Amino acid sequence: MLGAALALGAALLGPGTAWAQGATPTRPDLSGFWINQYTPDLSVALGRQPPFTPLGAERWRTVDTSKDPTGICLPAGPSRGFTAPFPFLLVQHADAVSILFEYQATWRAIHLDGRGHPDDVAEYPYFMGHSVGRWEGDTLVVDTTGIDERSWLDTAGHEHSATLRLTERFTKTGADTVQWAVTYDDPVFFTRPWSITRTFTRGKAGDRLLPYTCNENNKDVEHLQKHQPNLNYVHTPGPDAKTPAKPPGDHER
Amino acid sequence: MNRRMAAMLVAGVVAWWAVGARVAAHHSFAAEYDRDKPVTLVGTVTKVEWMNPHVYFYLDVAGPARAVDHWSIEGGAPNSLYRAGWRKDSLKIGDVVTVDGYLARDGTKLANMRTATFPDGRSVLGGQQYYGTGAPPPTAPKPPPPGR
Hints:
heterodimer, A: alpha+beta, Lipocalin, nine-stranded mixed barrel, B: alpha+beta, CATH 2.40.50.140, 2 helices, 15% helix, 32% strand
């Protein structure tokens, strides 16, 4: 009865209000202290290199691994925060979800109040992107654009362009696990969207985020050798070579 | 998680780490260190820096003809070490320690530690625990008393 009344109220009030976005007792609560599945190379999670465009392939071949933006303490970016070897806090409210990453003490704000992305987000990008979300049943679906192209997707050196759009799906798969499925859509770097799935594991009672001020004693920066080749690069034959047809959707094996 | 599972998890993490996987979350290991240049250093600790993004400690290493070489050793991430049970005073000024690691590419007296051991064979600042608070590594000192 109460649920029906709430649903009717949400319908009358329309989108853009907190009621419309899940002030019901039935949403799963993703809040908690979560531990990542450390993934320094996304191609290991995918099972192959992403489907590069020629530009993407050339950027992968020539990436200078001494120029990792996190090496000078620039933020990791929205998806790399979820693959780093440090935990995060997720705080869920009806109209916003906050992600507090231990790594570099950075954050993501996911707006659930029905708003879209700012018109000028491409001109004023965020290293962590601008995120809006909605519930599809029990799955939180998050759309992120405006990701500063200086961020890297992983430690191995997979890069992206300013056109990158992330779609993430957060689903509670148990009392202490959340599945995170992320799709990378970047027509400048990749010929088609591709996805990986990782699992977050809940920490113990009393777990806390530990301090991480990245630039308090960053001694690496003076020792990183310039123009380090991409040791992860493996030459693969071009499109004219006789290679087996790839399956239609790229997803991890 | 029960104690046996915790011990297996720690063993798995230590084994994974020892095989050469690095916590290179914020830069490529290969851009700074040379895996083909392993080095073993025996020295006396003169300083420990327990700060982000990496713990560093400094060794006076006996060189030829009574010279003393001053070496910098880069260790793991402080938070990962903390979760494995290590603390700021796990390594103290004056401790003698043997470090196996990899030389910096730029020719400076800098190495990235793979293992560090006391003369009695106990390891120190190893076995980083990336995943939760878990159990401390087998050779970690006892955790500090509650209330500290």
